[in-house]
């Protein structure tokens, strides 16, 4: 008899592993069978974490379905942000956008990129921290990774940028130092070329929650620096064009 998938049990296990700073192999879990089950488990995990911030990451599954997860812990750099460091923690420089109006699910004509741009009120420099309770992250089971909040382990919101950055981010000079060492120095590069690709995909996904993409929501748009492992705690300093974001990752 096949063991029934229990989203609460998966969420509880992911939560305890995250709290302990531990990882287990994909094979050690009973993975969700579909995106609905993965999302259910993710919701229970978010509840266990007490997540209340309206900040999200979006991406697309290997099958082309848009997926989101809450960003937690969420901090704003102006308040002296500090994020917990664990062995294996990775860092990404990102652009975040805040919506100034709702993007409700559409039954007819899909949202164009211009429609999404029009809904954006502000654009920010940001930094995402990543570590999954699943040792292989999403390389073996994307559904398990989606349940584990897409590996998010923190987000720091930096200064406002000109809204035109959503069109010009690619190629902007980007330098990142960590604990006094340069870990990235080159042009900003998004995996899809356009920082809004995944957000436009998510806006046009009919399966997303009715409550998603409301005015006020903050959405991060994907890495500009690749995912860089942070071998130790320390200060991070990001220089993106003329904009700067600094914060620290520290042992708990």
In short:
It is built from 6 helices and 13 strands. It has 252 residues and is α+β, with helices and mostly antiparallel strands.
How would you sum up this structure, described in words?
With 252 residues, the chain is of the alpha+beta class. 21% of the residues lie in helices and 33% in strands. It is built from six helices and 13 strands. Strands 1, 2, 3, 5, 6, 7, 10 and 11 form an eight-stranded mixed sheet that branches. The model has no long low-confidence stretch (mean pLDDT 94).
How are the SSEs ordered, and which strands pair?
Blueprint lengths: L6 H14 L14 H15 L5 E6 L5 E5 L3 E3 L5 E3 L5 E10 L13 H7 E11 L11 H6 L4 E10 L3 H4 L4 E6 L2 E7 L9 H7 L14 E6 L4 E2 L4 E7 L2 E8 L2
Parallel strand pairs: 1-10, 3-7, 4-13
Antiparallel strand pairs: 1-2, 5-6, 5-10, 5-11, 6-7, 8-9, 8-12, 12-13
Helix pairs in contact: 1-2
What value does the Rg take, in angstroms? 18 Å
Unreliable runs: none
Q: SSE string, helix = H, strand = E? A: HHEEEEEHEHEHEEHEEEE
State the secondary-structure class. Answer: alpha+beta
List keywords for this structure.
single chain, 252 residues, alpha+beta, eight-stranded mixed sheet, five-stranded mixed sheet, 6 helices, 13 strands
